[in-house]
Amino acid sequence: MLQNKWTFKVAALTAAVFAASCAEQKISQLENEPRDEREFNNALANEYEALAKKETRIYNDSIDGRHFAVKGLQAAAGMFVLPEDPMRWDIHKKDLPFLMDARERMLFALARGGRFVEPELGAKTQVAFDCLVEEIEEGPNLHKDQKKEINVCKKLLTKRLGDLETAVFRNGPVRRVHFDYNSSNIERDGMMTVAEVATRVNKFKDRRIMIVGHTDPVGKASRNLTLSQARANAVKDALLAHGVNPSVIKVTVGRGELKVSRKEFEPNNRVTDIYLY
């Protein structure tokens, strides 16, 4: 019986040493891995590296440390890395509503442009969420600092998620250029919008653009379709003049009359929308 206990202890120690070695190997690989040129992926790789080191070197959690190091390597390689799904972790049902709500809000904010508007904040928000999922699964009594870690991760996530949602609301991925009646000439305010978009696109190399022109419903539909295309083309030409690479502009289309409840002479319908994604 004593021999079996020692055999079990040796096996457990060997497994722990092996896990720690694997975690450190992945962390070392991540430290030396060239970063993807996209701002969000770059920041995400750095945040996962920091989390992997904390789990492995401070809390001796080599399994989760390796897991987060691998996610960092994926981000560094340019892969699309999602936040953890709490349903796949051993999370008590009382903690799931908060986590699932936060995850849904975060994914919505990231999809609405958070990865581009605030790439570093977006990455910090995602990793704070993963940190919280991991800490909650382990429970508040695993070690003396566990409750503190849960509270730190939760506060970080709440603060960063709120800031991210505010940034996306203020700097969303859609910009609108207005036109005068029956015109495709871009006025001063429109040129300012074009210049702002060009600055953002030239700064973040992974930005892509879709340009959609519209008119109000007044006049013949065929004429409005032609005019909406001319407006879309005018915005495209203005962006190119501001140094935007042509390959970034994926779609330039006129869709004619903007769908409204009634035909009216309405300036807000004479627009071209610029979608950033």
Q: Tell me the span between the first and last alpha carbons.
A: 64 Å
Q: What number of domains?
A: 2
Number of helices: 8
| Helix content, binned percent | 55-70%
- Gross geometry: elongated
What composes the largest sheet? 4 strands, mixed
Strand content: 5-15%
Description:
With 277 residues, this protein is α+β, with helices and mostly antiparallel strands. The protein has two domains: 2-170, no CATH class; 174-276, 60s Ribosomal Protein L30, Chain: A, CATH 3.30.1330.60. Helices cover 61% and strands 10% of the residues. The protein contains eight helices and four strands. The protein has helices at 2-32, 39-58, 62-76, 96-117, 119-138, 146-170, 188-203, 221-241; strands at 174-178, 209-215, 249-257, 271-276. The protein has a four-stranded mixed sheet with strand order 1-4-2-3. Helix 2 (39-58) packs parallel to helix 5 (119-138) and helix 7 packs across helix 8 (221-241).
Topology summary:
Blueprint: H1 2-32, H2 39-58, H3 62-76, H4 96-117, H5 119-138, H6 146-170, E1 174-178, H7 188-203, E2 209-215, H8 221-241, E3 249-257, E4 271-276
Parallel strand pairs: 2-3
Antiparallel strand pairs: 1-4, 2-4
Helix pairs in contact: 1-2, 1-3, 2-3, 2-5, 4-5, 4-6, 5-6, 7-8
